[in-house]
Amino acid sequence: MVRYELEYPKQPYSTVKRYDSLASYSLSTIHTIIATSPLVNVSFNPPNSPFPTILPMIGALGSYARPSADITDVQDLYLHGYVSSRIMNLSRTPDQPDGLPVCISATHLDGLVLTLTPNSHNYNYRSATLFGHATLVTDRDEKLFAMRRITDGVVPGRWEGSRVPPNAGEMASTSVLRVKIAAGSAKVRAGGPTDDKGDMSDEALKDRVWTGVVPVYQTLGTPLAGEYNRVEVPGYIAEYVRDSNVGAQEQAVEAAKATVVPKKVVDE
């Protein structure tokens, strides 16, 4: 059976122009980048401010209507924060009937690409941006759904591994935003160094300059017990640390060995 990969629609504000051969609009690609980032950067335009605002936040993808939806499916992005924070207050204003317009981005660095000349040095990276409207979640069950997704996004299984459900005070002091995603795009660079023909034909240059990729990946350390901890490190935490470290290293090494996608430059 043929399975078609869903993509976000290309919009004027979301279409990648420069090096568009590196672009992807695949839900799977974009969602994976967002879902595997410990933090996302959320930007919005506060009224009466001369500058946009950008906040590092913890977010999690999910669909309350379809809890079984995975990264290949249409989902919302949930963000949580303090009840009286500016972004939460702006999401309550009646002059934003569709919600607060937001942009959300995440980037992973996979390698340092070192070439013959400084001008052609590069990074192996995966970046994604989502565009959507944020509204407050008012339904208690959906709020709990989102809080669980966000907690398990920190360490899978942590929701059940902690004291739940949140008490009344915790529920009252925490707000959750649901971002309905309108569009998204990703840009991914993988592969080794590339240099222009002039430098490549300079044998003396190639004899003295090292070229290649230094893989870059996040490593989780050995869990350290807290001052009042009384239990051994649970299996789900140890497993997450191990699997995360192995996966991150494999991702970086595979990116370094990948075939470079030729760049097609479009400037507008």
TrEMBL record:
Q: What is the top-level taxon of the source organism?
A: Eukaryota
Transmembrane segment boundaries: none
InterPro entries, alphabetized: Pyridox_Oxase-rel, Split_barrel_FMN-bd
By its UniProt entry, which PANTHER family does this protein fall under? 5-NITROIMIDAZOLE ANTIBIOTICS RESISTANCE PROTEIN, NIMA-FAMILY-RELATED PROTEIN-RELATED, FLAVIN-NUCLEOTIDE-BINDING PROTEIN
Can you say what this protein is called? Flavin-nucleotide-binding protein
Which species expresses this protein natively? Coniochaeta ligniaria NRRL 30616
